[in-house]
Amino acid sequence: MTEMKKFNVLVVDDEKEFREMTIKQLLHRGMDAEGAENGLIGLEMVEKGNFDVVLLDVKMPEMDGIEALRKIRQAKPLVEVVLLTGHASVNSGIEGMKLGAFDYLMKPMEFDELLDKLSDAFEKRRIQLEKIETAQIKKHMSLPS
Ligand SMILES: [Mg+2]
Q1: Which residues have C-beta under 5 Å from ligand 1, the single-atom ion?
Q2: What's the CA-to-centroid distance between 68 and ligand 1, angstroms?
Q3: Domain tally, the chain
Q4: Mean pLDDT per 10-residue run, the chain (145 residues)?
Q5: Could you tell me the distance, in angstroms and rounded to a whole number, from the CA of residue 14 to the centre of ligand 1?
Q6: How many A from CA of 18 to the centre of ligand 1?
Q7: Does residue 2 lie within any of the structural domains?
Q8: Which region, left, alpha or beta, applies to residue 100 given φ > 0 means left and ψ of -120 to 50 means alpha?
Q9: Is the pTM of this model over 0.85?
Q10: How remote is the CA of residue 45 from the centroid of ligand 1, in Å?
């Protein structure tokens, strides 16, 4: 088994039990994890915080996951989002991917499946940030002195 890199996860889900259990398991695996009970709070936390990946439930009161996804993509385009759907909301998961979500997971799922998906999302973000950093260094080096 390859060693997993540590990253910051925000779990946005109105189901308290699922949210708290997932955070607990993520912390147990050495990740940083916090939770939000709806899309509005989640969006605010993404804007102010330093999250790598957002696990975002589709069906929530206040602001649903798709609306939150749109706003997160606007506010922090490099933060990766993994959507959570139920059987009845799989179409939202697919719609979300068209809007830039990394992927979706259908509840209920095994925690390891969840963690693998979040890790893949983080890896995409890590590579993207690395590319941007390299481009910035190159640009800086090519500037006339
Ligand atoms: Mg829900």
Answers
A1: 14, 57, 59-60
A2: 13
A3: 1
A4: 82 98 98 97 97 97 93 97 92 95 96 98 97 93 76
A5: 5
A6: 10
A7: no
A8: left
A9: yes
A10: 18
